[in-house]
Every structure is written in structure tokens, then in C-alpha cells.
Amino acid sequence: MIRAENLRYVYKSSSGDKVALDDINFSIDDGEFVAIIGTNGSGKSTLAKQFNALLIPTDGKIFIDGLDTSDEKNLWHVREKVGMVFQNPDSEIVAAIVEDDVAFGLENLGIEPDKIRERVDLALDSVNMSDYKKFAPSKLSGGQKQRIAIAGVIAMNTKIIVFDEPTAMLDPMGRREILSLVKKLHTQGKTIIYITHFMEEATAAQRVFVMEGGRIILDETPREIFTNVKEMRRLGFDAPVAVELAERLRKKFKLPPKILTADELAEALK
Fold first, then answer.
1. Is residue 168 a contact partner of residue 92, using CB atoms and an 8 Å limit?
2. pTM, rounded to two decimals
3. Which CATH superfamily is domain 2-239 in?
């Protein structure tokens, strides 16, 4: 379980302090899929870095399976439990060969070479990149690089994976590939924290946190949040395409309330 209690984070600088997270409280159960959305500057990425202690709370606490992330003696154990995937895979890839990059974290843990090879092969297979293990990452597409970054986290066997806008630099096909992989990891029992600017991606989650001004202002199901088109517009978001289209079509057709996905809309129009 992940638990935040009165979590606060302040960026300090010579030009003045900036409150990025302000009195945040939540809990996330094992195996949940939570999406986090918010406009630029709302605190999403700052919150993401709290989960594996890349940033330590200024005030309050965040606990990972009961481990206080601000306690230095817990740092290694927290990072064994929480893997991170960022938006730019080029900033995460450290090796000249794909399989070496996926093995990097395992080598730092001192795992036996035979076990490393086994876990690297399994991780690459799980992201459909086995055929590329001898490739140079520089020869891969953006989506393929992101899959390699995810394979590195899978190989570490963390129970929680935090995705900080992993599709932000990808084309639509690349985004679909990564989201499909994220859904697959969730069905395998991983706890998923998924930060995104794309509302359609957030509909795949079980819960959505909406952030504004460093606070979580909404914590609801995707259906409750995204089908409230008026509130979405007030907060500065576009509703998912299927929701917007259903809203327009209701002027001519009698449609069920709270249609969320394209499949639901197509079924209703039949």
C-alpha cells in the first residue's frame, strides 16, 4: 500500500520558495491503477518523484508498504519496491546495447550473471523486444526505446511502477503500444501510477487524481470525472473524444448518460 499523510513539498531558491505539493492525503491499495492528471505546474511530476524518494517531503510523510521514504535507512528498500519510467527514454538509457541497458539495474544489485540473463530475457520478451536485444538503442524508434526503459523496470521486479508521462514524446501508434503494455502489467498484479496529459489514456485507470495548485482536488473513477464535461472544461481539460462526441450527439439522439469510451458510444448508437 502507498499512503500519503499531509504531504507537502517546497522548492527553495534564492528568488523565493515555491510550494509544489500542499497538504496531500491519499492511500493506494496494492494492485490499483491510478491515473494522475493536471495542468502544467499542478504538481504531478513532483508527486511522482515522491513515490521512490527521488524527492523527500518538506513536511508530512509518504509510506511505501509502511516504509517512511524520508528515513534514509529505507531508501534502498523503497526503490526495490518502486520503479520509475519517465517521458524521455533517451535520458534513461545508459548502455550501448539493449540487453546491457536492461541488465544495468540488476548488475547494481549484485545479482548472479545467470539470473541476470534469465530476467533480462523475460523482461524483453514481455515488451516484445527480444529480437532487438543486440541492437544499439540509438537505432530504435521512440516507442521501442520506451519499451526498453519499461523492460529495465520489469527486470527489477518492482511491485509498483510509476509512469511519468511515458507517452508525451511518442506518436499516436507509440502511445497505444505503451498504454497496452501498461494495462498488461496491471493485469499481472502490478500497482500502476500513471501520469498523463492524454485524457483517453487516463480512462484506462480505476481511479483518477485531478491535481490543481499542488493539491488533489478530485479522486474519483474515470467515468465520474470525465463525463462531467462542464467541470472538465472549467479545470482546463478537454474531455475524452468519445465523451465530447456523445455530448454533441445527445442534441439529436437519445443516448445513455456517462458514456466514456468509443466502444460504449458505438454500442449506444446501434
1. no
2. 0.91
3. P-loop containing nucleotide triphosphate hydrolases (3.40.50.300)
